């Protein structure tokens, strides 16, 4: 009768990774020499729940590792050992090792056993060092100490009566009994009196009870620990077996805190043996009663629930369709006449308002605070600072700014990259900073805030700034800029985003940056974002990233070409102009260029690119929409501009396949499908087109 | 190409350039009157475009062109058969433009024949086999292959 536990694996991993995050955050706050009880408790809880979970699921390596970790943490918690920076370092590294072990287990690949073993040994080494503090008469879970403490107690009588839900919650009584047996010699007696007849038997409810006698020199907490996960889901009685030795506690002074131990065991029936054990005082003073303390662990933060992304996406989709249906209704109502039609229209206006509210709240369900990304930086800054010998301070603000989960997933790596660049190339070494009259400690700032329907994320440093001359000379060297081409300050800075610029060797370790900045920009552009760079020599640099709130909805400009309506993402639009004949230049009858101020912009005739019909073929009759992607500008030739609106993006891929130059499709109010242009794709397609047939207009 | 339909299955038949074709009713989601579609650029000629089916973008193909026949002439009996099939674990929805809907037949597996080897042309890979019903020969099409991106 085994419950299939694999169904809980995902939840376990998800929760464990989250918990490791909070453990890491707590460790970073932990300053050497100061034992903040709450922080240590947080850390301890994480280690403890991962240990419990992994033992239940049979991930023995993780369980063994966390057990050692837990023992060390317990010493810190009880004040037996001082918090020292080598310990914090080792603990931080164990977060990494645990993460690696868990993700290895999750993906069913072999874990890096060597790293785990080394650290495991190191942790054990730390524990073997004499605690810095004078030895108090304390109890440890380690056997030698425990033997002293429990002198006089021959063992424990344990009665386990599983509750209705115990097995359903993943607590296998057999596992607990096995663990109990590992503590010493165990005799068990099964009470099958409550087992119903086969007809009424529910195979998922354990109807058996156990009476067990454990002959072992362990303390009560060790026994309780085994059943900790099942507390509240079973009735448990733990009584001391009458000992044969001397009166317990004689060897050690009976601490005052020993008394509350007995009531701390929930549901322990008042058995005669308990009375015998309590006065003797199980010495465990420095340890707070485990069950009482752990019951304060909150079950859930702020009353949240876990919902799968698919369910939310389904909901989002349905709402998207509702929005479309609503606009169909509004359009129909607009053409009606009569008094009743006015009423209908009023009702529909109301409808529209509610619809928007609904859509917004559903969108918000997918939104997560950016803190989930920001949280990895304190650790990173600490490690980088140590490695590079730089003094760093990290300032963060706006961690609660929310972004769509998909957007969040995509900006993690680019942000890591930018922060690393800032530390590596931006912030100077302490001596250099002192020489420049700056504070030795460099500051990296991360800010997130809302601005006009977008979220802005800024990464800035107060380092040396970018050296424009070096960038320019490097770019000339790489042939990105002509030898005597003059560039504006802005353009020089933007060179670091150029694909060819960022190869293996960087401008210099002191002032240049550029490792994969093109990748950063590409990733941000892919999700409809925009990257800008500001830099002042000697004062530092700032990278500003503008991100859309969500990927499911896009701000679009509707443009008509013949019968078809296309949607151009507003973020890509630079401007829209009417073409004058004298601005048009023809290149060998193949490409058409528009001279705009001091720039030549290729003209893309949408109808030619897509093989459709347009109203206008004369450039002067239509409109030119100048769009930009990846630093390239082209003008899209369209017949007419229509409204701007938010559109719900529908994938073409799910039923057909990806189509070059299209980002997807959306439904218009009249039930038609409009195609959303993918501007980088349009430009790429225009570039790869074979020489266009010469046009008589040329 | 072997065919293993369960002993008794219902097929919807339709007319395409005078021939009668059949598709299993279990793959047919609905039949809609012809309605102009939004043209997709850079798509094969047989891909007429996409239409909005209650919020889902559905590609619509001209089955005549897919079988290298004359392009469809839109007439009063022209309809779009919307197929919904499971392929590679995902549900895909596609529309087929056909000349007219004909009948629904019960076809016994015993009456189905696999297609004789006639070479790969004319969309032979989209044909599942041939069947006899009511004294006529029906061409059974394979909806999964029709909707699969591999054959696009």
Description:
The complex is a heterodimer of chains A (698) and B (152). Chain A contains 21 helices and 22 strands. Chain A is flat. Chain A has five domains: 5-128, Up-down Bundle (Four Helix Bundle (Hemerythrin (Met), subunit A)); 143-293, no CATH class; 309-366; 369-548, Heat Shock Protein 90 (2-Layer Sandwich), CATH 3.30.565; 553-688, Beta Barrel (OB fold (Dihydrolipoamide Acetyltransferase, E2P)), CATH 2.40.50. By secondary structure, chain A is α+β, with helices and mostly antiparallel strands. In chain A, helix 1 packs antiparallel against helix 4 (85-106) and helix 3 (60-77) packs parallel to helix 5 (113-128). Chain A starts with 8 loop residues before the first helix and ends in a 10-residue tail after the last helix. Chain B has one domain (8-151): OB fold (Dihydrolipoamide Acetyltransferase, E2P) (Beta Barrel), CATH 2.40.50. Chain B contains two helices and eleven strands; from the N terminus they run E-E-E-E-E-H-E-E-E-E-E-E-H. Chain B has helices spanning 63-66, 143-147, and strands spanning 8-16, 19-24, 28-33, 47-53, 56-62, 79-87, 90-98, 100-108, 112-113, 127-133, 136-141. Chain B has a six-stranded mixed β-sheet with strand order 8-1-2-11-10-9, with no helix packed on it. A five-stranded mixed β-sheet of chain B has the order 3-6-7-5-4. The radius of gyration of chain B is 15 Å and the shape is globular. The two termini of chain B are 20 Å apart. The A-B interface holds A 317, 320-321, 324-325, 564, 609-612, 650-652, 654-657, 659-662, 664-665, 667, 671-675, 685 and B 37-43, 47, 49-52, 54-59, 90, 92-94, 147, 149, 152.
